[in-house]
Design a protein that fits this description.
alpha/beta, Rossmann fold, Alpha-Beta Plaits, 2 domains, six-stranded mixed β-sheet, two-stranded parallel sheet, 7 helices, about 25% helix, about 20% strand, globular
Length: about 250
């Protein structure tokens, strides 16, 4: 049995779904590190694990800016790892390179990179992905890497440096409707603390991840602006053609 650490930042669950599927394999024992919540992530030594899997979504061609310092808290010592990037069927651009540079600087050896086309946060794009077929591909990819974990070769993740410059703040922010029961779930779960204690105020920390929209059991959070509806329709049309997953291995 191999001991595996699963580390992910996953506001709406795609990266969690993909990375967690590796923990379902019969040949591994797993410890999970969910670094999504708005809490201080402590410096964490992962050098005692046989393998580490890092997972993150792609926002406009980069990993979310708020996740960078959290991933930097993960430390290895020549520890083999894999990167799993989920993106909304548009393009992953410099996200793999950005995450790879972080973990390589912190003592990890990158044995493989998976870029997974997934359901987009906005619109009706690739609903349900990563699906069971995507997961099967990812698990096969992981078996290949695990077999070569001790070999010295490493993978250079795709992407460019300097990285693509992106706007960190959200163009569209959720609002709260009358369904709200003031349970405070959205306040507690927002990755960047963008929702104030009054629940209705969304401050400029918002990254537009829509975690609050997806998780609210009362469907009290939504984006009602007509400009957002128009944007979703345009995006859904542009990204309607399925993209395949890509795997980069030694």
């Amino acid at each position: 049995m191999s001991s595996i650490a699963l580390v992910y930042f996953s506001p709406t669950g795609n990266s969690k779904k993909a990375v967690s599927s590796i923990g379902e394999l019969p040949c591994v024992t797993v410890k999970t590190f969910d670094i999504t919540g708005n809490v201080e992530v402590p410096e964490t030594d992962l050098s005692g694990f046989d393998f580490v899997v890092f997972g993150a979504p792609v926002y406009a061609g980069r990993i979310p800016a708020c996740s960078v310092e959290r991933f930097k808290k993960m430390k290895g010592s020549g520890t083999p790892c894999a990167l799993v990037l989920t993106y909304g069927n548009r393009a992953y651009e410099d996200a793999p390179r950005g995450l790879g540079d972080i973990v390589a600087a912190n003592g990890f050896r990158i044995k493989g990179v998976a870029t997974m086309a997934s359901q987009h946060t906005y619109g009706q794009i690739q609903l349900g992905r990563p699906n069971k077929d995507d997961i099967a591909e990812l698990q096969e990819f992981f078996f290949h890497m695990l077999a070569k974990a001790e070999e010295p070769e490493t993978v250079v993740p795709p992407g460019n440096y300097p990285y693509k410059v992106v706007e960190a703040k959200a163009k569209f922010k959720p609002t709260t409707n009358s369904n709200c029961l003031a349970c405070g779930m959205c306040v507690r779960d927002c990755p960047v603390g963008a929702i104030e204690e009054d629940i209705k105020t969304v401050n400029d920390n918002c990254i537009g991840c829509m975690r609050c929209v997806k998780k609210c059991p009362m469907k009290a959070k939504s984006v009602v602006a007509q400009a957002f509806s128009d944007f979703e329709k345009l995006l859904s049309e542009r990204l309607k053609n399925r993209k395949e997953n890509e795997f980069f291995v030694c």
